[in-house]
Amino acid sequence: MTTRPLYPLAGVRILDLTRLLPGGFCTLMLADLGADVVKVEDPGPGDYGRSMPPFLDTPDGPLGAMFAALNRGKRSVALDLKSAAGRAQFLQLVVSADVVVEGFRPGVMTRLGLDADSLLAVNPRLVYCALTGYGQDGPRALAAGHDINYIGVTGVLDGIGASDGPPAIPGAQAADLSGAYAAAVGILAALLRRERAGVGGVVDTSMAEAVFALVSLPWAEWAATGAAAGRGAHLLSGGWACYNVYRAGDGRHVALGCLEPKFWVAFCQLVEHPEWVAAQFDTPRQPGLRAAVAEALAARPADEWARLAEALDVPLTRVNRLAEVASEPQFTAREVLLRTAGGALAARTPIRVDNLAAAATGAPPRQGETQAVDVIAAWAKET
Predict the structure, then answer these.
(1) 345 with 371, same domain?
(2) Do 310 and 196 belong together in one domain?
(3) Span 106-163, pLDDT tens digits
């Protein structure tokens, strides 16, 4: 008989100084794995996400939906890190913490006297993670930026959109979330090293560098050949008929992902055009082939194509709208969506260990609802 293990990060204590999406999602992933995440917010507005629309109705008044989604199951303490008293309390928290995550521009924590070296002097086993746009050094390190800037600088944005149109802003924050994942991996790696070597360290995560990984394949092709396929022309960005988005007969869209020849053969069988099989990777024929596939797929509704494709093991799916994701059977079966203690619908983070449920299901915290002295005392007792 086997015993279900504890959550992988049970007992790991994290101080989260970040605001908005990147840091919030990073620490939410760690919270879902069992970590105790304490947000450190200023006594004023706190995390900007609290006051950003759209809002949820809560017993305490309107609360930003983004904040609620990113901060379920966390705690919040209010500290003025610009004051001596606030810094002193924060340093007391650091003594018993395992991880500090901050998202300020380089130099801000140094001016507060709370930079990595200062905190590691207080707690040599601490893992200090700085999650910034461009990293801790280099000519852009101090530059202002957001997701759109990071995907612009790295070439990611230039590859999104139709070949005859301008770059298109994606519907997801690619750099913010790539940075969140990279920071989480760095934190976990540093924690593992600490268990082996007994020392903490500094995780320097750049959102621009993290999102650059998303164009690894096109960049590798350019590095090898000196040529780039161009926007909407790469094998995986719309240049090839076998891997593209098409309008179905009901006006909905379907996503076709038949890269492997066996899938393309099955698709050609589905649409009754076996003569297309040989043209799958024939570059000159792609424009005409895309038009022919588009004409064929316009003959039936998207749902009908999806049902027929599934029967033949063809990777063709309907393009879901966000409102339809909540009823997506795959997500329902795997309990991707959950209800917090406050009743809000939320998405669990995707890292699963032993099929444990998401740990952070508590309602998002009220600003400063937990006293720093209580956290300090509890953590000191546990240490």
Answers:
(1) yes
(2) no
(3) 999 999 999 999 999 999 999 999 999 999 999 999 999 999 999 999 999 999 998 8
Q: Is 23 helix (H, G, I), strand (E, B) or coil?
A: helix
The whole-model pTM stands at 0.94
Query: Rounded CA gap, 333 and 30, in Å?
Result: 23
| Judgement on whether residues 128 and 263 belong to the same structural domain of the protein | no
Residue 3, class by beta-carbon neighbours within 10 Å (0-12 exposed, 13-18 middle, 19+ buried)?
exposed
Do 161 and 55 lie in one domain? The reply is: yes
Identify the active-site residue in 146, 158, 253, 273. 146
Task: Please say if 146 is a catalytic residue.
Answer: yes
Q: Which residue in 36, 98, 115, 176 is the catalytic one?
A: 176
Amino acid at 166: P
List, in sequence order, every residue forming a beta bridge with 130; answer none if it has no partner. 102, 204
- Counting the structural domains of the chain, the total is 2
**At 91, is the secondary structure helix, strand, or coil?**
helix
Cis peptide upstream of residue 315 (ω within 30 degrees of 0): no
In a shared domain, residues 198 and 270: no
Which helix (H) or strand (E) segment holds residue 256: the answer is: strand 253-257
Active site residue 250: no
Tens of pLDDT along 93-106? 999 999 999 999 99
DSSP 8-state symbol, 260: S
The residue segments making up the domain with residue 374 are: 13-214+333-382
36 phi/psi in degrees, rounded to 5: -90, 105
Please tell me whether residues 133 and 17 are part of one structural domain: yes
